[in-house]
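Whiteboard transcription, Tuesday session. T.W. wrote the structure tokens on the left side:
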């Protein structure tokens, strides 16, 4: 049974083909710069050299066709035909309140996803395009939706309800939803294993830090709060998103600059965050290079991001009554040793004692590491995320009729003998 996982972003499509019987990745890759121009595919097969092909993808449908073409290519492919694929799992960023777990996609499910696409306008439309494109190419196999928001549906009302007119929630669904749910699920389960505990016995703060950034307060194995809100704009400082700000600022700037709601929304989502502070960078590696070169605004961006991370660790530790571990994951979380160091600096009073040498030597997307000293009461882990494996296991469980909520379903990566492929 081969399962194809698709993760369609606003300008990229990430994919992974997994052999369920052998429990191994057959191929994985990404089509980048979709809709942007100068697009290309990076295709990786274990034991082979990485393959790259320039291929113009004006939309996600062309990108999906490129992935299929590459997977079945006589030289670079791994399957003789798409008949070998048993099912497809699709990442869907926003499921609103309709979806609390992964589901088989039918016409009603797809319509429901479309109904909430205004809540994630940068993400749900390409997710939908990816689903429709894949269904057209693979019409006879099951397609399953895996929602970023599902993991956070355990939040209590006091966490997800905004202090706004309550009828906004009743009429429009205005509430905190949270995102990166599959990532928070995966790394929290892995952290429990590394702690030698059951997930239900763990209090953990997970920190997904990439271009998009979100944090999660996990108490007794379930999400009770998370930093992103109605949309992925709220919360931490991100690559281009502002995160938490005074809500009066947009109206103030709109009045003084004569901006429309659409224009201010674009600025908050695409021209803010560390890009807004530095004026030129979203990649934290560029920012750190700028710091080393004496760029004051790069230094400021680094300090602001790390300070906000520290505040979330502290506030979430208070919310869940103390923590067993902090987990850093995603591109910056896994590779950004300096940001991690600054984020936990001064938290010794909480029982966090960073091993600076281990932290500096931990820059990998493959290995799980503990970067605190042996006597640290609270452990800090760097755990590479694997959202595609969550997709795959959900798909297989749905096909086999064994799927249930994540606290009762036994994922392979929640077992002590789990080995990353």
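and on the right, the sequence the group agreed on:
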């Amino acid at each position: 049974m081969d399962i194809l996982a698709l993760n369609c972003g606003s300008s990229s499509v990430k994919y992974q083909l997994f052999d369920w019987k052998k429990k191994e990745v057959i191929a994985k890759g990404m089509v980048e710069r979709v809709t942007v121009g100068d697009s290309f595919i990076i295709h990786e097969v274990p034991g082979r050299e990485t393959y790259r092909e320039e291929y113009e993808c004006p939309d996600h449908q062309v990108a999906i066709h490129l992935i299929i073409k590459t997977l079945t290519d006589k030289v670079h492919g791994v399957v003789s035909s798409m008949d070998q694929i048993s099912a497809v799992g699709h990442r869907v960023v926003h499921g609103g309140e309709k979806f609390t777990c992964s589901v088989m996609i039918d016409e009603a499910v797809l319509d429901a996803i479309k109904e909430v696409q205004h809540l994630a306008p940068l993400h749900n439309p390409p997710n939908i395009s990816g689903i429709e494109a894949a269904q057209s190419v693979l019409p006879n196999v099951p397609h399953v939706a895996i929602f970023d928001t599902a993991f956070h549906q355990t939040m209590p009302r006091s966490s997800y309800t905004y202090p706004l007119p309550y009828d906004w929630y009743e009429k429009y669904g205005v509430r905190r939803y949270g995102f990166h749910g599959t990532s928070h699920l995966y790394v929290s389960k892995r952290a429990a294993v590394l702690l030698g505990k059951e997930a239900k016995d763990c209090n953990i703060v997970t920190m997904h830090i990439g271009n998009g950034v979100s944090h999660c307060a996990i108490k007794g194995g379930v999400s009770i709060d998370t930093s992103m809100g109605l949309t992925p704009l709220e919360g931490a400082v991100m690559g281009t998103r502002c995160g938490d700000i005074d809500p009066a600022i947009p109206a103030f700037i709109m009045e003084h600059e004569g901006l429309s709601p659409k224009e201010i929304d674009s600025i908050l989502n695409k021209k803010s965050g560390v890009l807004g502070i530095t004026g030129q960078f979203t990649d934290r590696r560029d920012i750190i290079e700028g710091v080393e070169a004496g760029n004051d605004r790069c230094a400021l961006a680094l300090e602001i991001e790390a300070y906000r991370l520290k505040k979330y660790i502290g506030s979430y530790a208070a919310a869940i009554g103390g923590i067993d571990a902090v987990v850093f994951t995603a591109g910056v979380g896994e590779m950004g040793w300096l940001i991690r160091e600054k984020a936990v600096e001064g938290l010794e009073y909480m029982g966090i004692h960073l091993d600076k040498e281990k932290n500096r030597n931990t820059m990998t997307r493959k290995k799980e590491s503990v970067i605190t000293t042996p006597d640290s009461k609270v452990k800090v882990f760097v755990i590479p995320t694997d959202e595609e494996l969550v997709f795959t296991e959900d798909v297989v469980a749905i096909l086999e009729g064994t799927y249930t909520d994540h606290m009762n379903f036994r994922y392979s990566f929640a077992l002590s003998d789990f080995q990353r492929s």
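Someone added at the bottom: DSSP finds 15 helices and 14 strands in the chain.
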